[in-house]
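Lab meeting, action items carried over

1. Structure of the three-component assembly. Owner: GW. Status: complete.
Input record:
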Amino acid sequence: MRREEVLKNIKGKFKGDIIELFDKSSKRVYIEIKPQSLVKVATYIFKDLKARFNIASGMDARLHIEILYHFTIEPINLLISLRVKLPKDKLEIDSLAPVFEAANWIEREMHELLGINFKGHPNLKKLLLPDEWPEGVYPLRAEYKEWDKNAIRDRGL
Amino acid sequence: MAKRTIVPIGPYHPLQEEPEFFTLTIEGEKVVDIDVQVGYNHRGIEKISEMKTFDQIPFVVERICGICSTSHPFACVQAIEDINDIEVPERAKYIRTIVGEGERIHSHLLWLGLAGHFLGYNTVYMWAWKLREEILDVMEILYGNRNNYAMFKPGGVRRDIKDEDIPDVLKKINSIIPTLEMLKKAVMDDPVLHARTKGVGILTKEEAINYSALGPTSRASGVTKDVRKDAPYAAYDKVAWDMIVTQNGDVFDKAVVRVLETFESINIMKQCIFNLPEGEVDANIKSISAGEGIGTHEAPRGEVFHYIRSDGTNTPIRHKVRAPTFMNLPTYKATIIGETIADASIILAAIDPCYCCTERMAVRDTKGKKLYGGEELIRLSQEKTEKLRAKYV
Amino acid sequence: MSFKLKALLKSPWVFHLSTGSCNNCDIEILDCLTPRFDIERFGMLLAPSIKHADVLLITGSCNRKSATRLKRLYEQAPKPILVVAIGECSLSRGMFIHSYNCPLPLDKIIPVDVYIPGCPPKPEAIIAGVVKLIGKVKSKTKK
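Predicted assembly:
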């Protein structure tokens, strides 16, 4: 399938789910979709278009939290990034881990670093941070402040 | 139900980008479950990167991993260039390729040596690391340091390759080829190694796709994916080379992919040195406009992925880094279950996560009666090799 | 010089511990063992367990998860134990000083005897550092 066909298929199939499609360059496409249709679109891209799941990246954009799911379709050299915007008062989205195993760890990471709740994730426990890390403190949030009173941040000069 | 034993491995992996803590559950000799915990190396680089300027970021990401100290800057500068679609000068592209391939050679040799060590072939370990020194010498001649070369900057490279260094470099590279050939034969024709690694720790093609495994780990399972071929960047589309793919997905095939890739890398590196075009090495970027960019690079262990978002200022507002091991580690769930404990150390090593962990394994009976140390596990592994050696030789 | 220290300095077995490093320093430590540098000729050997070690080589910027393990390992080590900090990260945390996961420098967690700077220090520097450590201990105990 050629690049144009792929994009046309996605556009046609998920007309109601796509908010914006930004064709950045011949290799990169950013598609903003509604959060509730993520699993549907991602499953189609992963299973039917035979894409490889690169990774997801969460980001605190001050007004909302944004997640990008990156997929690569190697034969046509196209990187599709699905953009999802979540309101800060309701940080919840369906998990992709039941669809493909590759999403398992990154969702755990985003859960602890950004505080996003993934519904239906099989094992949503801490991945990177220590157990004594305080609840409700998310280091990648924009409003993150030093919480540890014992921390030393100068070189003693 | 048979008595189950829990084998903790770790938590330290001194050689590893992401030190881990494995909990193997075994029944007799069989591994029935594995749990992986990471985070012993988490330094919050993504957050630190947001405090640095675009010029400083390549230095930050260089310190993510010591073995991949060009892979991360490589992907990172490509992400920055992708924001504005900056075209890099031709000579810089070739130099970048030379740096990237040199790193692949030394990384694969490092892996080969340590894999040999775990199978009880300490000679392989010493030979491979001795060969690796020659490559590090090449690095030192070209970039001034054995590791952390600081060659990458957005828009090009920081230093040019001098013509007078090239004869020395070629001599060094050529000098390792015969020894490497010998090592290859020694590794690939050894019946004991075949018995030890063939059919062990198999990752099927379907599993490799489901886990989105990367690099040699997936290519050994018949997945024909290599960023250098699929999305050519730098000078990879201007030189002739083959993607190494094998079908079985076991430990042996992973080793074969790495050994053969080393030869391909030498080949690419030599072609780049011979065809090095004249000209500038830096595009002199003045500013980065607002936008987002993605950069990928095929590191020795698989694809490195960097996502950078800029708001038009001097610093990024988000920098996401994904190292290949992040995707390869969960494949343990597919490879190690059902194998014996003597094979555990080599299967854990097979994806090239780095191995020092295995030197610190402690095996404990659930009742706390038996206690094997790390030496004991390596000894188990080495004894099995000895037994097989007696059978075959 | 006490009998223990004298025996220790004859053939110091090193144990190497990464507390959140980029593994460059760790590879350079392993490099010291391989044919080109070969520290075994000085009687130094990489010990697989802390219980066999005389010298503790520490790399990395001591993140929260590994700092607790570091303390525990230091307590388990047979005394006297000599501690060497290798690389910029374990000296001052380098560029990770503002990291949310690296709150304390190494020498605020356990006492350190010798510091080897560099990012990463070359194998020659590591060998020189360990030799200096031996010299330091000898001159201290003579008095």
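2. GW to write a short summary for the group page. Key points so far: The first strand of chain B starts at residue 4 and ends at 9. The first helix of chain B runs from residue 45 to 49.
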